[in-house]
Design goal:
The protein is mainly alpha-helical. Helices cover 73% and strands 0% of the residues.
Length: 496
C-alpha cells in the first residue's frame, strides 16, 4: 500500500493551482464557441461570414508571437512570474473583447483576441514548464497532465456558462450585456491565480540556474519531504546542478543552439511537430466550432451548447484517467491510441455525411454526435495532454523554456490553419472535410511510432541519453531502467 506523503499532497496542490492558469486558457476557448452563435454578438459584429468567424478564431494565435516574450520572462523572472505576466495580459485582452461595441466592434474584438492570445501563450507554456520541473521523474506525466485537466475544466465551464446565457436573452438589453458577462467571468480565476502565484515556491532548476543554491535546496526539500531521503534529495540537487553547469558552459546557453546543436534540434523538431499534429488533427475545430457543427446536424442553439457542455465535461473524466495511464503505458502508447480513436471518428462522420446528406436520417445524426464525443475522448487521452508532457520534459534546463515556447508555436501554426480551413471547408465541401482530418490522424500514427523515443520514468537530466548523436535509430527506445550518470561521490537516488 502506497503511503501519501507531505510531498505528494504539496505537489498535487501546487500543480492543481497552476492548472487554474490552464483553466483560464480553456475558458477563453470554450466561451468563444458560444459567443460566436450568440444573437447579441452577431448583431453587434454585423454580418459574420464563415471567413470572418475564422479570423476572430485564428487571430487569437497571432498572439502566439509570445515565442519572443514568454521564454525571456520564464528565464529571467522565473516560471511563476512568467505565468503572472501572462494572466495580467489575458485580463487586458478580455477587457477589449468585453468592450467591443459600435462601428469599431469587430476591430476591438480582433485586438482583444490578439492580446489575450499573447497572455494565454505565456500561460500555456509556463504552466506545464513549472509542473514538469517540480515533479519527480516517475510521476512527471501525471502532474503535467493536470495542465490539461485545468484546460478541459475551463473548456467545460465555458460551454456551461454559454448554455446558461441562452436563458438570459429576453430583452434588447440582455442581448447587449449577456455575452459580455460570459466573457468577463474569466476574470474571477484570473484574480485567484494572479494573487496566489507570488506565494508559491520557484522551481529548484530555475533557482540553481540563477545561482540561488540555498533556495533551491530548500525548495527541493519542501517538494520531496517524506517521499525521498535527505541523501536522495541531495543527490537529485547535485544532478540538477551538474546538468545546469554543463549546459550553461556549452553552446546551449544561446537560443540559436536549438538549431545549431544536433542533439537539441532533434528534440526541437519533434516537439514542434507534435504540437502541430495536435492541432491539425482537428482539435481546434472541435473546440471552437462545436456548437456550429452540432447546428449543422439540425440541433437548435441551446441544445448545441448543452451538448458541448456534456462533451467537454466528459473530457475532464477522460483526462483524469489519462493522468494514471501516461506514466504506466508511456507517451507513445497514449498518443497512438488517441489518434486511432480520432481518425476512426472522423471516418464515421465523413461516411455518414455522404450517405445521408442534409441531415436526412436522424439516427445517422445521433451516431455522428456520438462519434464526435468519441473523438473528444481520444484527444483527451492522446494529443491534448501528452503533447505538452513530451515537450516540457525533453529539453535541458538552460533552454527548456525556449524549447517549449518554440515548439508551442508549431501548435499555433496548426491552430491558425485549422481555424481558417474548418468553417470555410464545412461550408463549401460539407462532410468531406472530415476525411481530411481522418487522414491527418492516421498519418500521425507511424510518425509517432517511428520518430518519438519513449520518455516515461526518465529524469529530466537523463534526456540527453535519448536525444544525442549516439542514438543509432529514430524511435529507438533507450532502456528506461538503464543506470543514469550521477555526479561523482553522490549517492544514487531511487527516483528523481
Amino acid at each position: 500500500m502506497t503511503l501519501v506523503t507531505k510531498a505528494d499532497i504539496r505537489l498535487h496542490l501546487l500543480c492543481i493551482f497552476f492548472a487554474v492558469g490552464s483553466f483560464v486558457w480553456g475558458y477563453n476557448v470554450g466561451i468563444l464557441s458560444s459567443v460566436l452563435v450568440h444573437p447579441g454578438f452577431i448583431k453587434i459584429m454585423g454580418h459574420l461570414t464563415p471567413s470572418r468567424k475564422g479570423v476572430i478564431t485564428a487571430i487569437y494565435y497571432l498572439g502566439t508571437c509570445y515565442v519572443f516574450i514568454s521564454h525571456p520572462a520564464s528565464d529571467l523572472f522565473g516560471r511563476r512570474y512568467a505565468a503572472l505576466t501572462g494572466i495580467l495580459i489575458v485580463a487586458v485582452g478580455n477587457a477589449f473583447e468585453c468592450g467591443a461595441t459600435g462601428s469599431g466592434a469587430y476591430a476591438m474584438m480582433i485586438i482583444g483576441r490578439i492580446i489575450s492570445g499573447i497572455g494565454v501563450g505565456m500561460l500555456s507554456t509556463s504552466v506545464p514548464l513549472y509542473q514538469s520541473e517540480v515533479a519527480p521523474a516517475g510521476k512527471r506525466g501525471k502532474y503535467v497532465v493536470l495542465n490539461h485537466v485545468g484546460f478541459v475544466g475551463g473548456l467545460a465551464a465555458g460551454f456551461w456558462v454559454g448554455y446558461a446565457v441562452t436563458f438570459w436573452n429576453t430583452t434588447e438589453h440582455d442581448l447587449f450585456v449577456s455575452w459580455r458577462v460570459s466573457l468577463a467571468v474569466v476574470l474571477i480565476p484570473c484574480f485567484i491565480f494572479g494573487v496566489g502565484l507570488p506565494f508559491l515556491p520557484e522551481t529548484p532548476r530555475w533557482l540553481i540556474e540563477h545561482g540561488h543554491y540555498d533556495a533551491a535546496h530548500k525548495s527541493l526539500y519542501w517538494l520531496r519531504e517524506g517521499s525521498f531521503t535527505e541523501l536522495e534529495i541531495d543527490a537529485e540537487l547535485m544532478r540538477i546542478k551538474e546538468d545546469v553547469e554543463v549546459h550553461h558552459t556549452s553552446r546551449e546557453a544561446n537560443w540559436l543552439s536549438l538549431f545549431r546543436d544536433r542533439g537539441l534540434f532533434e528534440r526541437l523538431w519533434r516537439a514542434s511537430l507534435l504540437q502541430f499534429m495536435a492541432q491539425m488533427c482537428g482539435a481546434t475545430a472541435m473546440k471552437y466550432y462545436l456548437p456550429t457543427l452540432f447546428a449543422k446536424l439540425g440541433l437548435p442553439t441551446r441544445v448545441t451548447l448543452l451538448a458541448g457542455g456534456i462533451e467537454s465535461t466528459l473530457k475532464i473524466g477522460m483526462t483524469v484517467i489519462e493522468m494514471f495511464l501516461i506514466d504506466h503505458l508511456g507517451r507513445r502508447v497514449t498518443l497512438t491510441a488517441g489518434c486511432v480513436a480520432m481518425g476512426f471518428s472522423m471516418l464515421i462522420n465523413g461516411v455518414l455525411g455522404q450517405v445521408y446528406p442534409d441531415n436526412t436520417n436522424k439516427a445517422a445524426d445521433v451516431v455522428c454526435i456520438v462519434f464526435i464525443f468519441v473523438y473528444a475522448l481520444g484527444y483527451s487521452m492522446g494529443f491534448g495532454p501528452a503533447a505538452w508532457v513530451y515537450g516540457s520534459e525533453i529539453f535541458p534546463t538552460s533552454v527548456r523554456a525556449r524549447g517549449l515556447n518554440f515548439s508551442a508555436s508549431g501548435g499555433a501554426i496548426g491552430s491558425i490553419v485549422v481555424a481558417q480551413v474548418w468553417p470555410v471547408g464545412i461550408d463549401t465541401i460539407g462532410s468531406n472535410i472530415y476525411f481530411f482530418f481522418m487522414a491527418v490522424n492516421f498519418v500521425c500514427i507511424p510518425i509517432i511510432i517511428l520518430f518519438y523515443p519513449e520518455t516515461k520514468g526518465r529524469p529530466l537530466e537523463d534526456m540527453d541519453l535519448l536525444f544525442n548523436k549516439a542514438i543509432r535509430g529514430v524511435g529507438e527506445d533507450v532502456d528506461e531502467h538503464s543506470e543514469p550518470v550521477l555526479p561523482k561521490n553522490v549517492g544514487r537516488p531511487s527516483q528523481s
